[in-house]
Every structure is written in structure tokens, then in C-alpha cells.
Write a structure and sequence with these properties.
Radius of gyration: 19 Å
Largest sheet: 7 strands, mixed
Number of helices: 11
Distance between the termini: 45 Å
Number of strands: 10
Strand order of the largest sheet: 4-3-2-5-6-10-7
CATH architecture: 3-Layer(aba) Sandwich
Strand content: 15-25%
Structural class: alpha/beta
Shape: elongated
Length: 266
């Protein structure tokens, strides 16, 4: 079954479809600290570090987290989509980095020399790849000795209350990203490459108050984006029923985690 983890060229040519899904998190997350600032505060970055963002998307993380990062960072933004790279560079150039460069790149074959970066970041992107371990090996290769890799992904139980609604499309009632590359896979691959690693889960949940935002988010990727009229009608009915049960709101559990591994120093 096609899902959010397939059709990358169409899904991520620009940030339009991604924005429909991101809105659920930006508008309805209940957390003491938002996702992007929380991640930024966990990263063991130092002033002056050179940082590679693999699968940078539109650069939203760096714009949201700029005030929570050390000074004088050198930022390289890479993505398979040239449209995403362009958008990310344009968004990050005005931010307080020493340098911002963009590079179209395949995560499984990064066009950088060995030991180039102090830190590599890969946020919610490894579930798109047919072989995440190959990409992690590439990220490890371009790290300097003593540098670190930080990856984020979802757990298999992430937003289960939302994904249960997509069964009208023939989808499994689970987060497709968490199913493709969840916590267990992330820990296994990171331990295999780095040995020691740390994991932390962002303490957060969703409380959605607008059914239309649920509809737009879950029809922004396959198979919902190609559903026929009967399926879409059934989907709207399922959403309406879920909000009725919740007295006008939909409470949703979240599982989003950060894994950090450090390359041994020589």
C-alpha cells in the first residue's frame, strides 16, 4: 500500500503537501516545549561547528530553533529535492549562521569528503529510504572523529487515533512512518554503527479542534490524495464521528524521538 513513505518526488517537490501535515503539529500540539526548540536543546552542538542537515526539507527546523542554537554555526542544507534545498537556503540565509550552503544530494551517497562535519542531522527522513542503514553509514562517514549524528523518527504508536481513521482508504491503522522506520529500527541501526547512543522522546500530545485540518493532513499523501468520492465521503463521516465521541475535540497521543550517536575520537 502506498503511503507517506512513498512517492517522494511528488510529495516533496516543494513544501505544499508537507505543510498540510505540519499544521496539525504546529497548531494543536500540547507540550511544555515545542518540538523544534526541544530537539535543538538536546543537540550537543558547540559554537563554530559545521553542521550538515540531510533531508533538510524547507528548513523549518533552523528557522524555529535559531535562538536555541550556539553561535557561529556553519550550516549545509541537503535534500534530494532541489526545490526543498532552494527554499531552505532562502529561509536560512537571513538567520544568524556564519555560512549557509545548499546541496542537492541522495542520503545514500552524500557528495562530501570523509570527516567533513562536526554534526549531521537527519530529521524524520530515514523512513523514506529503501535502506536506512546505508544512509546512516554515509552520515557516519562524513562525520569528523568525535562528531555526532542526530536522527529523529516516530514510534509505531504515534498518533494512532488519527491513523485509525485512514482505514477507509485501505491503510493500516498505524503511522506509516513509524511502521517503516520506528524506534526499534532506529536504535538497532544506530547501535550497530556507533555502539553507544542515547534516545529521548519528546513529551507531547495533540488536541485537535478542527476536523478539516485532519481531513487535509490525511489526504495530502497516498492513498488519501487519490481517494474517490465515496472514500472521501466515508472519511469525512469517520472524522465527524470521532469528534462527536470527543465532544468536539480529538485527543491524540504522540511518539516522536531523538537518537544521538557519537563517532569515536581518534
Amino acid at each position: 500500500m502506498s503511503s507517506i513513505t512513498s512517492g517522494n518526488a511528488e510529495q516533496y517537490g516543494d513544501s505544499h503537501k508537507l505543510a498540510a501535515r505540519a499544521r496539525l503539529n504546529s497548531e494543536y500540539t500540547i507540550a511544555e516545549t515545542g518540538w523544534f526548540p526541544w530537539v535543538a536543546r538536546q543537540l550537543p552542538l558547540k559554537p563554530g561547528d559545521s553542521v550538515l542537515d540531510v533531508g533538510c526539507g524547507p528548513g523549518w527546523f533552523w528557522a524555529a530553533a535559531a535562538n536555541d542554537l550556539p553561535q557561529n554555526l556553519h550550516l549545509t542544507l541537503s535534500d534530494l529535492s532541489p526545490g526543498m534545498v532552494q527554499e531552505a537556503v532562502e529561509r536560512c540565509l537571513p538567520l544568524p549562521f556564519v555560512s549557509v550552503t545548499g546541496q542537492q544530494a541522495d542520503a545514500a551517497g552524500l557528495p562530501f569528503e570523509d570527516g567533513t562535519f562536526d554534526a549531521v542531522i537527519a530529521m524524520h527522513m530515514l523512513y523514506h529510504l529503501p535502506d536506512p542503514s546505508k544512509a546512516v553509514a554515509e552520515m557516519y562517514r562524513v562525520l569528523k572523529p568525535g562528531g555526532f549524528l542526530a536522527i529523529t523518527t516516530n514510534g509505531a504508536g504515534n498518533m494512532r487515533e488519527l491513523y485509525a481513521l485512514t482505514t477507509v482508504f485501505g491503510s493500516a491503522p498505524v503511522d506509516p512512518a513509524g511502521a517503516a522506520f520506528g524506534y526499534d529500527a532506529a536504535e538497532r541501526i544506530m547501535r550497530a554503527k556507533f555502539g553507544n547512543m542515547t534516545m529521548a522522546q519528546h513529551p507531547a500530545s495533540l488536541r485537535v479542534t478542527d476536523p478539516e485540518d485532519v481531513f487535509l493532513a490525511l489526504t495530502s499523501y497516498p492513498p488519501g490524495d487519490s481517494a474517490d468520492e465515496a472514500q472521501l465521503a466515508a472519511f469525512r463521516e469517520a472524522i465527524t464521528e470521532a469528534f462527536q465521541v470527543g465532544n468536539g475535540v480529538l485527543d491524540v497521543g504522540k511518539e516522536s524521538g531523538l537518537f544521538i550517536g557519537r563517532k569515536a575520537a581518534k
